[in-house]
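tool_log.txt
---
The assistant was asked to compare two proteins side by side. It first ran the structure predictor on the initial sequence, then on the second. Raw inputs and outputs are pasted verbatim so the downstream comparison step can read them without reformatting.
(1)
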Amino acid sequence: MASGTRNPGSEVFRWILDVHPEWPCPDSIKSGRDAAPRWALEHDTKRALNLLPADEREKVLRFYHIRDAKLSLASQLLKHLAIVRTCNIPWPETIVSKDHNHKPCYIPMDGAKKYIEFNVSHHGTLVALAGCADKEIRIGVDVVQVDPAKDIPKVRQEGWQSWVNTYEAVFSNKEVQDIVSWEPLEPLDGDDLHKAKLRHFYAHWCLKEAYVKMTGEALMAPWLQDMEFRNVQVPRAGSELSIAEEGNDWGEICADVEIWHYGRKLTQVKMELRAFRDDYIIGTAVSSLDTHFLPHRLLDLRQDVYTAAEAG
């Protein structure tokens, strides 16, 4: 297709929302069986929950930990926002459906509206959504937070190879060998080396998750160890770049990964990793090379979500 005439349906929009500053609650109700219902009485939380249908509100309020309820709430809001912005319909008319693989999507009641394929992931305090208004496209997204403070003590105790082998059911033999033997270009030692190797491990993990979510299957898929990624590059955080794009939040993009399935190289799947801040990696997988990745956007809850939801 000639430049400038791309079908908008082939564009993949990608958003993230950081819930850390949103919907605060007293320390006394951070977790517990009645924590979420009590948190729901807070003014800011009530405002957001009221934007969801009853069944989605109930889903959010089932969580034991408030941190998980926040992520669920943000996930639901982003799905509705995707429908509003893509189909230009009022928020109260948005309905999140599921496809045959139980992945969220928008199936329009009116044939004139657009079908939307989208996928959501969350980790740490970030929620990521990727979507496309094309019924033929399948999308997977994954966000991982690299947390050396959590992982390094276990790595020290078990040893690097033993720690990696804990996850061998997810990776092919070649991927395990690559992860175990990988060394950074710059000589490092001690915890700095552990941090670099963990970041490489999570780049592999993020790719695998995004791909599997694109297919609609889980990490228990029977072909999981027969699908592998080669030439995995680790995107550098914005703070590591000499000239950081869009400030230091957004880091490097890596898109040269090779995908092999049952010993054959796949050429019709498009994948990308991008660093966000110092500790996050976001992976996107799409089932067609004809798609166009729009730049990631960090959304503002009030300016983007509430403005769209409460318009009119």
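(2)
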Amino acid sequence: MTSSSLADERSKRMIHTAGCIIIGDEVLGGKTTDTNSAYFAKFCFSLGMNLKRIEVIADDESEIVEAARRMSEKYDFVVTSGGIGPTHDDITYESIAKAFDLKLTLHDNALQRMKALSKPHPSQPNFSYDVPSPALEAKLRMIRLPIDTTRDEEGQVLFVDDQLWVPISVVNGNIHILPGVPRLFTQLLDGLKPRLLPRLTDPEGKGIYRLLFSTPMAESAVAPYLTELAKKAEPKGVKVGSYPRWGKARNTVTLVGRDKDFMQSLISEVVKNVDGILVDREDEADEPGDEDKES
């Protein structure tokens, strides 16, 4: 099968697994706090997708090339965040193009949308799309997209929000390149949802269940029981989790899986062994004045 045929197959296959690549020196350097991966994790859970990996990498061509190739091969649905702005260090498009031997192409529809929906910055009152300038070149940098000319362009560039000119570039059939700006990332990801639903085995995540138990016991105290519980639960596809809540008197134990009946059959057992209660929110059983205890 040719690389083009593989890309076409990836773009249509059912989505079971997902991966996320956060790209940015500013995240690794501590200047910017990444919130996009957390939003993506919730997005995947709500749609029944199994998010397998989140990576944060530098604005470095070799790092982006390696991560893009590996994740595209391994996961059904991949998103990247960051590195598609107008400056010299925004190299995501060119790096992912290199990863799959593609050329960057100025996308005319994206240009027309940019002209219609993007207002000139107050510092550029004389900016014109008709007059060559460094500012124009910087803007065009954001719509030179990796395009596989051996494939139909439909599906390689998506516009999912009528209020935004920003495209979602789809490379190798399953890598979706999104901006790092949180407002744009979330808006575009939400706009992508209707296109994903037909490819999901569990649309809306209705087959994934999460049970929360609030316990006053330290993690070290419940660890032996949870180890035995996990041995019993994991063959049923149910994951057992334990999460300390620093500064609070109560910790949280979770069950996550698809076998609702099996999970419900464990409730009384878990409640008894962790001296806990079933809750809807982690803080539901907190009381004013609760003090931190050993976790």
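---
observation on (2): Residues 214 and 252 are 5 Å apart (CA to CA). The chain has a mean pLDDT of 93.
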